[in-house]
Structures are given as structure tokens and as C-alpha cells.
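Anyone have C-alpha cells for Glyoxalase-like domain-containing protein? Sequence:
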Amino acid sequence: MALRAGRVRLDHLQLYAPSIEAGLAHLRDTLDVELDLPHMPVPTGDADPVHCLGLSLGGGSRLDIVTPAEARSRGLDPGHFAARLATGAFLGHWTLRLERPALLPQLADDYPRRLDPVGTGRLGSGECLLGRRADGAWPRWRGAGDGIVPTVVQQRSGTPPVAHACGLTLRALRGAHPAVEVINEQLRWLGADAVITVEATLLDPELSADIETPHGLRTLR
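Reply: yep, here.
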């Protein structure tokens, strides 16, 4: 049994950066937009404001700038992407929101090969449930993932994070991966193949987002 597409939607993209300032600089250079840090709210509840910042992408989704400290608070081990982070900020991962009445812990128990064990975290003013691997890596299916297979999250209490509106709208989410058939198999099972398009590549896996800005369409990597 696969998750039904109607039960899931894009929650947020994750831009990994050594610092919030480095992440904002990457967005300014890539998207050609001005972002005023001092007036931006922190959307992640109790998170330290120097570790995470969220920007609205429209349609209830957002882009989070995630530092190594914030990654650790989300159950990720930054060592898995330290080499890439050493070269600068990059779009590395995304999350899929599971809507009720489906319950993430029950689905993870029913399909342990498909879904990671569920832990708790902070999301906005309340608590969330999310898949977490014991090794702190991104989700995988049959050995392939590399940030393109999403983490599944579900709001447990409170309200979702409030992201800063800055004139950005996500138009398309794309991935490229050498094991494209394996990746797409898991995306179809999750009902996420309507959210992201993944194509084959002979190069390293890559996640990219086409974003409409006040100056036109730009691609974030």
C-alpha cells in the first residue's frame, strides 16, 4: 500500500549554510533579491535565531536556512554533508508533510522499510513528529537518497511555523540522481512524485528549485 497523494504536501526546503548570514548571501547572489535580516522573524519556536530562518515560498511552503547546529536539533549529523558545506551554502533536502487523519507513527510501524523511525521535534509553536535515522543521515530507499528522498513530518500540536514573506514563489522542485528509478519508486510510494521531478544524471546527486522572484524566475541549488 502506498501513501495517497492527497495526504501529503510539500512542507519546506532546507538550504544548508555555515551561518544564517552565509545562507542569506547565497540567496541574494542566486535569486538576485534583497533580504533584510534584522526584521525577519524566526519561524521555529524555541530554536536559537542564529541557527534557523524561514522564508515563505507561497502555498503554505517555506525555505529554511539551516546551520549545522539546527541540523543537529533536527536529528541530522552535519558530518554527512560537511564536505559539501565547506564549499558554501547549498539546497540539500526537503520535507513532506503528512496530513491527518493518517498518523505518522502508525504508518512507520506498519511500513518500517519505507519510513524511518519517528521522533519528536519543534515546529512553529508546537511539537512535530518526523522520521529520524539512527545514523543522522537523510532518508534512503534501497541505499539511495542523498537529500532527494524527503523526510516525512506531521504537526502534532500548536501551529505551523510562520515564515517571512519576501516575494518568493516556488514554481518547481527538481532532482537529479544516478539511481533515478530507485528514487522515483520511493517518491511514488510516498505520493511525492507530484511534488518533485527527478531525472537521471551521471554526475553527483543534486536538488534544485525554480523560484519566481520580483526579478523573474531563478534556480536555487
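Residues 17 and 67 are 5 Å apart (CA to CA).
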